[in-house]
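Q: I'm building a small set of examples for a reading group on sequence design. Run inverse folding on the following structure and report the sequence directly after it, with nothing in between.
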């Protein structure tokens, strides 16, 4: 086959078109050198068909087969993994710096300083038990300590509350990005063919995927043609081509999981808030009263179970509205779905489980399905639950709110509760400069007839009660002397005519306490129950004082105590003490009923708490034996250590992400030197192709000239 001059023109034409396209691509690269998310494009040249000619095959020119996008999907996947962790730890580090400031020492001192001053004031009172100035100084510094503890708790709570709004906003942003990616998937699918790749849309989608990875950790599978699959870490599909699912921020979720043989027909209810999730599992079948169903509780999805102060698994009696069980920081009870105050029908069966999430959380949501909890959760040993969110800003915010601030709050509560109990247990057995004509407990029970030692009683310190004797003393109001030879002694729970018996918290109720006092000392006082609290009123002509109490009854009921409250948010000075410093108990009543104004027994015991090792425990972090001041110092050190560790993790993951981003830029970034080289190359090629047209024209003119 012979080739004519027109073949040269065709070759020149294809060369002009191809190089013009290449120049356009190069120009577009140069124009977008500063465009975020832009991937460098390259015109791919392909030679044309070959035809047979004299001596062999001859090509027919060149064309652009595709405009390729320089992009490494593997590096991008690695970058998103590092970026999601970097954002998680960055959020943690930035917020933990704020927590450090809450406990940092300032010009007015810190909580540790206030705690030291509190015990120092008791030492001063120990030296001068009846000194009015020492008593007033103690009251002032106590109120300062209470305020410091309450303020720290309030600041942490405010930080947690601010996170809720941020997470809710981030969830909305994530849902919008999910929808954007699905829309881009559809557009990419419609514009993708064997000869055309929508590079701009692919860049836009990659940018959206990066934005989503900053919010939460994801897995991506690109099946080509716009069919990109995005899943959460536990396999929940967020984007599948053009189909999407949503995330939702939901509050206070309860999810039952009943065994096939369960006849339970009702609902579980709870009161209170917590940074932990609770899994309740029934271990003894039955109804909703003492001797009925019994359950255990877990804070890590059933991996481990909550223990009592003795270290053994703690069991809780299932109750209705009137018999709520105190589980951690919650009051839990069972009721009818339509009426929480009415007991449900049917019995609980062994193996029935209930998950309680007493806080806001992130859930994967599909229509007509149960929301799947994605809220970050820490398992035993500090390991992240892999079936929850473990990366991104959302995980970082929720980690900060629950795992870190939640732990600090629990430790602060443990410190406050231990301080209250240790001081009150000493103070409630002491005596001040003035005796009582009336005394009302500060702690209420849920049911006057419920056993005081059960966790359903509602007493904050029910677990501190033990079997033992509680002493009381009654005096003549006019002379101050003991009223009679029988006006003092142990409260007898054995009843009239029976042997003396002290409190048994497993069986005795608040009603039993009132009856025991009336039966033992009814001549001198009247014990009654007011608003579920014990009230003791001296009969006319008498006053009374409290004595030694090996059962802890007085401290548990809030009788003759120094502090009120049971947590960092409720700790306060007992109102009776605050109103009259004579009720500060520096001394005590001895076995004969005498109480000297110079006695410093109780002041000495409370001052000694500054150096005494005490047991501090909570169901979330276990037990430890430290001084109260040492426990506080350990907590502050932990906060500093957490901030330092998250800073290191952030810097490490940030460096990883930056390195991977640089690697991706090396592939997809626009290099102006390279583009200028290409610009000259394609320009010269274009000029050469144009010269080929001129040459073909001259050849044609030569051929035409042959006719003449």
């Amino acid at each position: 086959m012979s080739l004519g001059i027109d073949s040269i023109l065709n070759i020149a034409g294809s060369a002009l078109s191809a190089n013009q396209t290449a120049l356009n691509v190069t120009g577009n690269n140069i124009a977008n050198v500063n465009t975020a998310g832009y991937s460098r494009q390259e015109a791919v040249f392909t030679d044309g068909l070959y035809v047979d000619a004299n001596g062999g095959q001859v090509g027919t020119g060149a064309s652009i087969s595709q405009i390729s996008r320089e992009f490494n999907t593997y590096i991008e996947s690695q970058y998103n993994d590092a970026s999601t962790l970097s954002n998680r730890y960055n959020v943690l580090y930035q917020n933990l710096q704020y927590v450090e400031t809450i406990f940092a020492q300032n010009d007015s001192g810190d909580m540790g300083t206030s705690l030291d001053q509190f015990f120092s004031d008791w030492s001063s009172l120990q030296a001068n038990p009846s000194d009015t100035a020492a008593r007033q100084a103690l009251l002032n510094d106590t109120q300062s300590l209470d305020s410091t503890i309450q303020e720290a708790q309030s600041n942490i709570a405010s930080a947690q509350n601010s996170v809720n709004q941020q997470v809710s906003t981030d969830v909305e942003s994530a849902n919008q990005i999910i929808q954007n990616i699905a829309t881009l998937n559809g557009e990419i699918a419609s514009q993708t063919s064997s000869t055309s790749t929508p590079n701009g849309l692919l860049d836009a989608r990659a940018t959206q995927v990066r934005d989503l990875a900053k919010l939460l950790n994801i897995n991506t599978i690109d099946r080509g043609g716009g069919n990109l699959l995005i899943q959460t870490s536990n396999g929940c599909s967020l984007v599948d081509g053009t189909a999407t699912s949503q995330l939702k921020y939901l509050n206070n979720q309860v999810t039952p999981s009943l065994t096939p043989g369960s006849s339970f027909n009702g609902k579980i209810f709870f009161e209170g808030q917590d940074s932990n999730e609770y899994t309740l599992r029934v271990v003894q079948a039955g109804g909703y009263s003492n001797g009925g169903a019994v359950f255990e509780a877990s804070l890590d999805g059933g991996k481990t179970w909550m223990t009592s102060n003795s270290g053994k698994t703690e069991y809780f009696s299932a109750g209705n509205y009137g018999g709520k069980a105190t589980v951690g920081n919650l009051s839990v009870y069972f009721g009818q779905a339509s009426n929480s105050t009415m007991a449900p029908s049917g019995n609980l069966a062994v193996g029935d489980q209930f998950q309680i999430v007493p806080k806001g959380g992130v859930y994967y949501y599909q229509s007509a399905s149960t929301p799947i909890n994605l809220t970050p959760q820490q398992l035993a040993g500090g390991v992240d639950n892999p079936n929850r969110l473990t990366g991104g800003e959302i995980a970082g915010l929720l980690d900060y709110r629950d795992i870190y601030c939640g732990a600090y709050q629990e430790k602060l509560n443990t410190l406050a509760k231990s301080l209250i109990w240790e001081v009150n247990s000493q103070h409630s057995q002491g005596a001040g400069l003035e005796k009582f004509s009336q005394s009302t407990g500060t702690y209420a029970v849920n049911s006057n007839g419920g056993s005081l030692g059960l966790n359903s009683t509602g007493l904050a310190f029910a677990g501190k009660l033990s079997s033992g004797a509680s002493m009381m003393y009654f005096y003549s109001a006019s002379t101050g002397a003991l009223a009679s030879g029988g006006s003092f002694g142990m409260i007898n729970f054995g009843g009239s005519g029976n042997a003396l018996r002290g409190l048994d918290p497993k069986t005795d109720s608040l009603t039993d306490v009132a009856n025991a006092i009336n039966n033992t000392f009814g001549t001198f006082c009247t014990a009654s129950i007011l608003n579920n609290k014990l009230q003791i009123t001296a009969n006319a002509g008498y006053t009374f004082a409290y004595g030694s109490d090996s059962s802890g009854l007085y401290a548990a009921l809030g009788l003759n105590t120094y502090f009120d409250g049971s947590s960092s948010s409720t700790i306060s000075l007992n109102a009776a003490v605050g109103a009259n410093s004579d009720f500060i108990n520096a001394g005590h009543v001895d076995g004969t009923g005498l109480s000297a104004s110079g006695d410093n027994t109780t002041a000495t015991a409370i001052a000694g708490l500054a150096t005494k090792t005490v047991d501090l425990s909570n169901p979330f972090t276990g037990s430890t034996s430290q001084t109260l001041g040492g426990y506080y110092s350990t907590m502050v050190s932990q906060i500093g250590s957490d901030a330092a560790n998250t800073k290191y993790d952030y810097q490490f993951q940030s460096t990883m992400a930056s390195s991977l981003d640089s690697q991706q830029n090396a592939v997809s970034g626009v290099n102006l030197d390279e583009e200028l080289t290409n610009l000259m190359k394609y320009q010269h090629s274009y000029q050469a192709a144009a010269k080929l047209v001129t040459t073909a024209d001259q050849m044609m003119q030569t051929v035409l000239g042959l006719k003449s």
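Residues 397 and 646 are 13 Å apart (CA to CA).
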